[in-house]
Amino acid sequence: MRPPLEMILPASPSNTAAFDRLARPVQKWIRGQGWEALRPIQAEAVTAVLEGEADIIITASTAGGKTEAAFLPLISQMLAAPTAGFATLYIGPLKALINDQYQRLEDICRDAALPVTPWHGDVAAGKKHKALKNPAGILLITPESLEALFVRRGPEMPRLFAQTRCIVIDELHTFLDAERGVQLMSLLNRLEMSVGHRIRRVGLSATLGDDRLAAQYLRPQAAQNVVVLKDTSSQQALKIQLRGYTSGDEDTGQGSTTGAISAHLFQHLRGSQNLIFAGSRNRVEIYADTLRQLCENSHVPQEFYPHHASLSKDHRAFVEARLKDKAKPTSAVCTSTLELGIDIGDVACVAQIGAPFTVAALRQRLGRSGRRAGQPAVLRQYAVEATLDAKSSVVDRLRLGLIRAISMIELLLEGWCEPPKAQALHLSTLTHQVLSVIAERGGASARRLYVTLCEKGPFTSVDQSLFLRLLRQIGSAEVGLIEQSADQTLLLGKAGERLVEHYSFYAVFQTPEEFRLVHDGRELGTLPIDNVLIPGMTLVFSGRRWVVVHVDDRERVIQVTPSTAGVPPVFGGDPGDIHDRVIQKMQDVFAEETVPAYLDEAARALLVQAREEFGRQGLQERRIMPLGEGRVLVFTRTGSIKTATLALVLQGVGCSVEAYDGVLEVKASAETPDIIDVLTQIKDHPLDRSLLAQANLMTEKFHPFLNAELLGEDALSSRLDLMALPQVVNGVLNGQAY
DNA sequence: GACCTGCTGCGGCGTG
Q1: Among the four A16, A186, A502, A710, which has the fewest Cβ within 10 Å?
Q2: Distance (Å, rounded) from C-alpha A464 to C-alpha A461?
Q3: Which nucleotides of chain B have an atom under 7 angstroms from any protein CB?
Q4: How far is Cα A72 from Cα A21, in angstroms, rounded to an integer?
């Protein structure tokens, strides 16, 4: 008789029961780890996975043991019932994450003799061919590589996945509300159709604003049956400070806000591991350069390094390794590259310069700090506002950056974050999936495509008539992506074949063209091609200063050599997307009188000023404010989508418009009609879609193949909101005008 | 007024 488990493993009874249900090799691995017990979330997951076939969402903090929670019982299950083909499919959004998870799972599976195969663009072709010849165990793959399998090996899919029982989706939140997430859902749905049975889905995530919406994403047809397991054990303390700073237009000299914030970071972050989110790659370079100088001037070792997606892999790996190495204090000045994914361990503090765009990002970033028991998460928020003078505009006086930073923190504390947008058509990704299904099957009927992608797949907002219009468009002579054979089967056209045959087809997201920046044969990183650089020009990049020595336009290579001066390059980007709820919260912050305890003295003073201005201008009620010289402020009090839609309409009648948080600054010309008349017109008449003609509607990768009509509908389903406009305008007009 | 993510097959060559 084997001894009772309690003698080996001190654990609570429920925990012991969970442990007992795991396969022997898995139990052996757990003992080898020296764990005292399974964590509650892991014990719950064991029960949920082994009892029944329900879809599951597991949410726990980054170091909360989610991977083990899912895989300890899944591996046990695989050992109990061996299958032919891949038994479990793991989807990861990053190659680096797949590499990390491969190491961890290999370790668990070593004694179990269960193969684990990583599969992404950097994995050797030989290794992939071996796995295809003998598919078994766990396959770790990116959405793009899974897409490639469908396109290149469509007929083999049933053989590879016929007995797959479970698909684990890591970092589930990164797929919600993204084109890539729609692609992934389409692929998983196609996989189920291809093998002819449902495959259980398990989502892992650290940050979910709304469990039900995540469940809706994971299994749209049966969201109510998704089991959500939450780790509530690690409710951690949160320490927040919001510091206010003011600056003029010239922000680079001595005594600037960049200098002042850098000095504060230098003073408080040195000696530990930290993340400094600077908001853009340009600002990452500015702050990294300033902090590097501070270290040099103080004759102390360098601890501040830049990290963003345009920097070389080598440099990024160097910074990540330093963050993991507690013997080398390191603060990374970074963009969202360090927001998710790969494990960099616990950081002492998260600094955020300027308000973030979403509460979800703020929450994800904060999750990097305070992960050790008893350690609070620490947020240092820096708000930068303009120095005011007699000529300063109302918009500057309202301190929108500070108010938004406060609003985001308040919403974070309330536990809210942005939900995914449900109704979008995703016509770019639908075009991609049409080509992919045709390639997979060597041809398909329109009916089959519609059922696969829209009826049973994720493109539920697309009805038959819209789908047919899309097919006719991409099958037209001038586009030529598809063509129809005599028996009505849809095949790839010439242009479609060319597209699908190239490896750049698999990803559904757009990437800009770039130069490579090289010093002494070593790549420093990449720059968007719209940077105009000629020999002799200086720049700040990768935390150092360079001078351009040679530009090769054909090969897209720029040679540089060290220099003592420089300015950071322009990286471009899209306008941010701010949710309605954030703007509402800003309105509340203006109207209330309480001052949050986490503001420093300067931030308090700025908040008081902003509220005085808000009251003085009567903005509690007032929605339209003339500024003189034909300029008017229109307070939409809505997020960026509705505000941008109104801006588009006003531009359509000849106004020039600038958008801020919930406010438009409108400048009329001599030919422009009176703004009240324009707004009244919008309120009373259905809107003319021809307005869309002047907007830039080509934002996604496969948009260039669509016509104006389809592009308009796609934009209206996601980035513009004409339907809401009458209501927005009504609100504006019913406030006190003029 | 922004950020991030991904990639196959094949020919040519050297090595064991």
Answers
A1: A502
A2: 10
A3: 1-10
A4: 10
